[in-house]
User: Fold this.
Amino acid sequence: MPEDLAAADRKPPVTCWFAGLTTLDVIHRSAVRPGPNQKITAIRQDVSAGGPAANAAVTAATLGARALLISAMGSGPVGAAARGDLMRHGVEIHDAAEQREIPLAVSAVLVDDATGDRSVVSPDATLAGRFDVTAPDLDALPRPDAVLLDGHHPDLARSVLAYARTLDPRPLIVLDAGRWRPVFADLLGAADVTARSADFRAPDDVARSRATVATHGPEPVTWCDEDGRRGSTDVPDVEVRDTLGAGDAFHGALVVALARGADLEAAVEEAVRVASVRVQHIGPRTWLENLSCA
Assistant:
């Protein structure tokens, strides 16, 4: 067994919950961007499950955690396609819309071949908004060491948070805060760590989490732990070939590292390492083959 895999096996086993959005991503890679009323030919096409919680769960499973995705996929063909991809990558699924044919979002993704930058058009969770998406039967699930909430299904996030707060010992709560959503007013004050983008802005009257991590694209990641200690972690200068899901990979790795007992600085360093691996490889899943040996 390779030394790095043997080392991963010696790490304490952890269970991580990822509660939030699943989509089906249809990804085209192109040498040019289409203009108005123009058709172009893609140089590559991929179809995979997407969404912040789902992609973070795939990363966590690849890193050796027991990754449980709590989401809404339903019984329709689009949900089946997303479910198949996730299960192939070791993710366990607790479907809050099981046996219902809800309209799972299909995301249209264009990746620029020259820069690796991605553009996304997606309805996110709005199509499922008219359905009751809470999380039933949480008691039947393996107890989590850490829980990530992305806020895309507000009722789901609230129900998972409420349940997690009843557990003893209480799992670590991490928020994926890409952009402000009203549900974060109910989540931030209860979170241990908020992992936010540079664009995330919360109203002044909303309670804050005990620790914060902020990404700034290729610039250093800044952080502040619960003791008020502040710092920054440099992002390696690598060849960027595909940025799709890089933030989700960062969050998945951050959750696993924290669940394994790393302090915030060490967890951020691991998350930066994993996200740097992701951006160097073309395609939504090919990078996973390079993760454990990075």
Notes: The first strand starts at residue 15 and ends at 19. Residues 55 and 248 are 6 Å apart (CA to CA). Confidence is low (pLDDT under 50) at residues 5-9. The helical segments are 3-10, 52-62, 77-88, 154-164, 184-187, 246-259, 264-279.
